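Thread: quick sanity check before group meeting

JM: Hey all, I'm pulling together slides for Thursday and realized we never actually wrote out the predicted structure for the chain we discussed last week. Dropping the sequence here so it's in one place. If anyone has concerns about the input, flag it before I start.
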Amino acid sequence: MTTESENITSPQESKMAQLLAATALAPKVLSRGETVEGKIVSVLRDSLLIDIGAKAEGIIPLKELEETGQEHKVGDKISAVVAQPEGDSGTTILTVKKAPRDKAWADLQAATERNETLEVKGIDSNRGGLIVEINGTRGFIPSSHLIMSAKEAIGKKLFVKVIEVNKDLNKLVFSEKEASERSLPKIELPFKVDDSLEVKITKILPFGLLVSLPSSTDGLIHISEISWKKVGPLDSLYKVGQELKAKVISIDQATGKVNLSIKHLEEDPWQKAAKKYPVGEVLERKVSRLASYGVFVELEEGIEGLLHSSKIPYGLELKEGDNLKVSIDLFNSEQRRVALRLAITAVETQDKKTVTLPRRQAGTKVRNKKETKAAKAKKEPR
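JM (edit): ok, ran it. Output follows.
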């Protein structure tokens, strides 16, 4: 027999019990974009009703499911994404379109962490590299990470490693070279980068020289690596069978390609010239060529400075061969750039005529008579 005091619970205990009970039975609160899993409770004419543990069922339009090609029946489990937490009818609108995409990004992230090799297909190319596709998701392989050219890789299957994956930025970058370097044996060569080799020209190409190497393989000296100066037609400068000395500047372990340079056997003339032409140095040199934005003055063979049109007095016309006294405003050996300004008020032209320049800062335009009169009138007191 229970006593009356045993049947009586305190108001505080009663409220706490009610709160706990209410919390336990409270429906799940969903947010847009959240991935949920539920069970199909009903198949309607145009949609599925899904029990997702919320206060109302979720609805997935059958049109979306038709695109996947999968059949669904009552009792099946299904994963979806919340498109609208609560519609007009009080139900939650779900979508399966985003779910596979989210899973694809999750799989790619996992593949990156496991350092897996993946198979992609080249679908298009641009200036920077190759656009590829994997499981409906597009990615990119930069040209520097391709073994073949981007155009050649279109339509082909490639084995790659993931080097960057960011779902939020929709950024997916692969490397074919990294995958190949792990699958191909490392090429052993009897030389290394920075070695100087005796080579023989085997073929003269429009863009460079193909040469034989001590390893019985071929190397390339690109036209840009032949000289620090401008180079004319290669077939007029070199002959097949001619022996040369060249420096190894790069070796591609994945493909075995070796690039060499003739000009790197000599000191860069721009580095040497930087010591000879400090800023402020005054020189007397000739105009070597004209441009729409100024004239070029040759400091020495292969090195020119620009006298910009903004620093040429209005009305002065310069021609090739004119003698100028100029000063160095800027000398940048890395960018191969020299900026000049006129250092005197007289110029000796090619036809031995001396042109006296107006005494004013180079680059300012000569005012016309109206402007001059207006300026004077403004200064005079009324």
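AS: nice. Helices lie at 4-7, 11-25, 62-68, 98-113, 150-153, 176-183, 269-276, 369-379. Residues 1-11, 358-372 have pLDDT under 50 and may be disordered.
JM: adding both to the slides.
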